[in-house]
Specification:
The structure is a homotetramer. By secondary structure, chain A is α/β, with parallel strands linked by helices. Chain A is built from six helices and eleven strands. In chain A, the strands form two sheets. In chain A, strands 1-3-6-7-2-8-11-9 form an eight-stranded mixed sheet, with helices on both faces. A two-stranded antiparallel ribbon of chain A has the order 4-5. Strand 10 of chain A pairs antiparallel with strand 4 of chain C, so a sheet runs across the interface.
């Protein structure tokens, strides 16, 4: 097995697809968004990446069949546009692994002639959110204008700590391949899985890329989480305490 | 020394042997099982693997002679079937090491034309066990039927966290070599070395592979551990408190 | 991407330049010094180094444009001497990375025919400083005399723990390329960003290399920090407690 | 720079020398012993090993001259035998590094046609020691007899946790090169630098290898440490409490 191994599962014909990355991270925003796309739209598994940099483990499915830890690319038709949706349960375990894995992702992107990259994630605010802004970062300033039209917020210098992991490296390493890349970060408290933040990110993606999906199941999950948040607020002695600091739950 | 070094110690003739892996892990179930096989049946050391991914240390034997940390393969004749039994005191120290070491194990398996792989281990329940179920996972759904006949329990999606380490990778990487692989996990509290769980796993292995060994010494060790558990229960103020949570002992 | 990747951004003509390294470290002394040089003198970005040993992240600039973590070399004309100023926000994440990154730095030094190396940093005293000595270490005893003339203090055997990270390796690995290298370490408490210590280091560098820069902005930053220190001292109940041990703030 | 770099400093002619390793470890027993040999006997620096697996740092000597972290081999004539004495301030930082560095050591051993290896160290007892036994381990049972004659104690299976680091690997990897290797471990509390334990080890080495050195300075250091230990015992309320458990000082 190579350091990064790309398994060719199927070779669907895609027309300059948009790569949408949603791996685990803050509030699981990116992962929820990408998985919702796969739930709502018919997709075909096209590539799988395995790597010595991923955890040494297998997942067990409903039939008790094991599958090696990896990240997957599904080809998805969304209205008139083709998407290549990247999902998985793991990120790499060390610096070198993050670089090598991201290069593997961009190798797959080249195999499918990807036209641009959207790395999805969450940005922690440390407080319960009322209005879910979506923060943007790009690897080319020309990308900003259509994103601003779709409501993406650009706050120069933010996030202050930069963007870490595969989402960050997708921006940094795409530049080296002349591939336009955008990171969409849904604001989220950072303490809870956040389907509402995922919905905000997905709405931006729809507007910018040009497709529509149903939000039903995502809204259901959001309602469930709202109940959890409501109970937390109640326990704290007041129903109407917006922007309450939740740091002690972390 | 290569990253993974396979030392050829002897070349016994084996007829499509079954690889049985029992390295250290939860409750030492896999290790106890594999070592009991070597105690009860005549075996011949066939291969040793050393690796820069194993701890930088030597073990000291009863004659004060040092031997480099490694994992060992013994060729064992069990009634009418040939076994290749993998034992050792260590697993790898990092992600890459787990992958590379497992590949080394499968290289040895190919040298002996291994027909299938059984990775043995324990699955922690967090409670004292009365009935020792053996949980199964496979890398091919066709493997399930004979295992179910032998009493193996398949609970889809379990263990929820997947299977980590060499046992997990043996399933994940065997698939890439078209080698059938099963993981047998004895339920165990997770807090104590558990010979009873090892016995449950071994009974399944006997039934599925088709051989018999004496359980005497394993039962003795089980009785010793039962005394320990009995004393723990007494200290807790009651002789008859089944399924008592032991988490605070961890 | 190679383990260490040197991007050629521009090829300014430099006459046996002096390499000045100022990466993050104790009191940010080296980084403050190097960045002050870039603030005060016109410079041109000449090289950028990226590496799998640097953190897997991008920084976000004022236009929300991402740039891959890296270290940068600016060509700077300082009066009659050419400088190659090395700055950045990160050091390597492990032993091997420090070595490989330092070798990359020295490869760039060779590309520009660098005549000597100054590694800048801070040395922690554990106490608030009144007089900012600059401690020196060299990779060739012949380098000491002009440094002593410029006020550099040499205390044999100090720092007792040696010099760690890129600054240390620049001395250690320059020797292997017959390149004279000096480490200038400004004394600093070790608890606070220390522009006064940076100024002391810069004054030595000016005297030894032969150039002058304005200290205005560095002095402003020093005054701001002095206020912070004054408040700390006040809180401790006395305005005039020199050499007070601050270890509990660390 | 290679992963492990062997610098040829001088090429003294040695007649099947004995390699004596004394790197930092428990009680600094090995390091004290090897350094005492270099203090008492004239030696010539023959080889230096640098490695990306050693800490990224330089040491600073009495003239403030930096030298890259490394391990050193001195050729020493001790009465009628030649020694190759290995000393240094560091061990490797990870598993792979320990293996690679030990292989480098054995490469140097081959360059000088080393006849046998003595790895020196301490073995912690957790108690203050009255009689300093020297525990032995070998990579060939034939080595035991002359060692037992010299008073080395062999306790089968001890140390129970094996021998870790370069000392351990020297035994494990020498076997692969058909080189006889012995580990001599002076008993020591494990809490203090222990010159008395070093003396016990050195006395064994003298007897087995066949040379004599003066113990004066080592005895002085031992007396100094005895005073420290005496004061600890006094503080504990009794002058005559042998084998007192010191575990709380650790």
């Amino acid at each position: 097995m190579n350091e990064v191994e790309i398994d060719r599962v199927a070779d669907p014909t895609l027309d300059e697809p948009v790569l949408v990355e949603g791996l685990p991270g803050v509030g699981h925003v990116g992962k929820l968004t990408a998985e919702h796309l796969l739930d709502e739209l018919d997709g075909e598994l096209a590539r799988r990446i395995h790597s010595v940099h991923l955890p040494p483990q297998v997942g067990i499915d409903d039939d008790s069949v094991a599958s090696l830890a990896g990240i997957e690319f599904h080809a998805v038709r969304a209205d008139d546009v083709d998407l290549l949706v990247l999902t998985g349960d793991h990120q790499a375990g060390d610096n070198r692994g993050h670089y090598r894995l991201t290069e593997g992702v961009l190798d797959v992107a080249e195999q499918f002639d990807v036209s641009q990259v959207f790395a999805l994630g969450g940005v922690p605010t440390g407080e319960l959110i009322e209005e879910y802004d979506v923060l943007g970062a790009v690897n080319d300033p020309d990308l900003r204008s259509p994103l601003e039209d779709a409501g993406v917020v650009f706050r120069g210098g933010e996030p202050a700590g930069g963007i870490v992991g595969i989402s960050g490296l997708l921006l940094g390493l795409s530049t080296r391949r002349d591939l336009p890349a955008t990171c969409l970060m849904g604001e989220t408290s950072g303490y809870l899985v956040d389907p509402k933040s995922a919905q905000a990110v997905l709405e931006v993606l729809e507007a910018v890329v040009g497709f529509e999906v149903d939000f039903g199941t995502l809204e259901e999950r959001a309602d469930e989480m709202e109940e959890v948040v409501g109970k937390i607020r109640e326990l704290e002695g007041g129903m109407e305490v917006p922007d309450e600091d939740l740091r002690y739950i972390g």
